[in-house]
Design goal:
231 residues; 5 helices; 3-stranded antiparallel β-sheet; 4-stranded antiparallel β-sheet; alpha+beta; Creatine Amidinohydrolase
């Protein structure tokens, strides 16, 4: 990796570290709690991000999902739900941070099991475990395509007793606003239609940096969870 690409990766990792700190602050403030709506939690997260981290811009909509809404994918718009005491809850946040004079995107997702249901706690624990499993598979195969990694993520979810809930398992990330520069290109997604090797360079020759998403669901019991970060 050349110096330019190393610098870009370092900036993305710095943005992710600040995003992790933001998630930690959300948890420490006790914001993820039953008795409030998803929209109310979203508003609280927005205020905390601006007040404590100076975040005024998010490169994608903030996603707060609870209960049956955790089965939904990013593009869905389910009705606002009151968070229940036995719900799973997931957050998918895309804060934009200033790093070395430029704006860089973070993209992180975490999940929580609020009650005592053992299966829901198992699903939440499986999310980072399967992330590590899928990441290790990616690292072992220099020629892997987006379609192949998506299929592996599906199999990993099935082997763990879950269904993979996402229509994609990730996408590229970079300088803000990367999504406006490459709208809808299948080769920039970890998805069934992407037969391009993930390590192939971008059109301008840059190394592409990826977000890996793990979305696990139990459709019969109507709960799920989501986890994502840099691959």
């Amino acid at each position: 990796m050349c110096a330019k690409d190393q610098s870009r990766r370092a900036a993305l990792e710095a943005a992710e570290a600040r995003g992790d700190a933001m998630f930690d602050a959300i948890e420490q403030a006790g914001l993820i709690a039953p008795g409030k709506t998803e929209a109310a939690l979203d508003a609280e997260i927005y205020r905390l991000a601006e007040r404590e981290f100076g975040v005024r811009m998010h490169w994608h909509k903030r996603v707060v999902r609870a209960g049956p809404n955790t089965l939904c994918i990013f593009s869905d718009t389910p009705p606002d739900r009151m968070i229940g005491p036995e719900d799973t809850v997931y957050l998918d946040l895309g804060p934009v941070f200033e790093v070395l004079g430029a704006q860089w995107e973070a993209d992180l997702g975490r999940s929580y099991a609020l009650g005592q249901d053992a299966d829901k706690h198992r699903l939440v624990a499986d999310l980072p475990r399967l992330f590590a499993l899928v990441k290790a598979h990616y690292e072992r195969d220099p020629a892997i395509t987006g379609a192949e990694l998506y299929a592996f993520a599906q199999d990993a979810a099935k082997n763990a007793g879950w269904e993979f809930g996402g229509t994609i398992a990730g996408h590229i990330v970079g300088e803000f606003p990367h999504a406006q520069r490459i709208p809808g290109r299948e080769q920039h997604r970890i998805a069934p239609g992407n037969t391009t090797p993930m390590r192939a360079p971008a059109d301008n020759g840059d190394v592409r940096h990826w977000i890996l998403e793990i979305h696990l669901v139990d459709r019969a019991r109507e709960f799920g969870g989501f986890y994502e970060r840099l691959l």
